Amino acid sequence: MFVGPTQAQEEEEKKLLAVCSTTQVADFARQVVGDRWDVQCVLAAGQDPHLYEVKPGDARLVAQAAICLENGWHLEGNEWMKTLSKDAGKPLVSCVTGLKPLELVEDGETIDDPHAWFSPKNAAVYVNNIARGVSQIDPEHTDEYKARADFYVQQLRTLHVWIQKEVNTVPKTQRKLITSHDAFNYFCSEYGFTSSAPAGWSTGDEVGGGITAERRQQSIKSIRDFGIKAIFVET
To answer: More exposed terminus of the chain, fewer Cβ within 10 Å: N or C?
Structure first.
């Protein structure tokens, strides 16, 4: 006896595909599209966008996408997400569009700091950029995407208020942040922290990447001078 596909299976097959460069972009996208889209991410949790090398399977995945989503500002080292989307002829949304970057100076070169989502206000811009992008592909459900984006942006505003309240319990002279690489400047700018990172802005051998003896000694000195009580380590 032949059993045809169920309605749920047919709906699953009809889902549009959004391919995201990083896990945080994918998280934002899922908040916007809900169950209406299939959201997949090139990077697995813990993989480094600065150092990632594209695999053949990535190109095959992007070839099936209705839209591609990236962070932008060179977070994706050597612009690998732009290359994937361009080669496949797919539309690409850079989530940082409309934001003003903070600048980093490393080894005499000035670059745009790509880690903008560490400010909840900037994360809201990411979400709205994603909502506009998917609405262009699927205009029939624009109102739904906008409503979901608005709801999540309100959650981000609530998060900002909570962070500000917690930060206000920390004396300004103690708002010092030591972490492995220089990814928290937007958070620090938003909430009045000073940061120090021994690995520079990138985890690889790009501009500012890698822990040098000089950076290590500078961080040790900062920890001692500022009386740092806790160090946060990334994966």
So the answer is: N
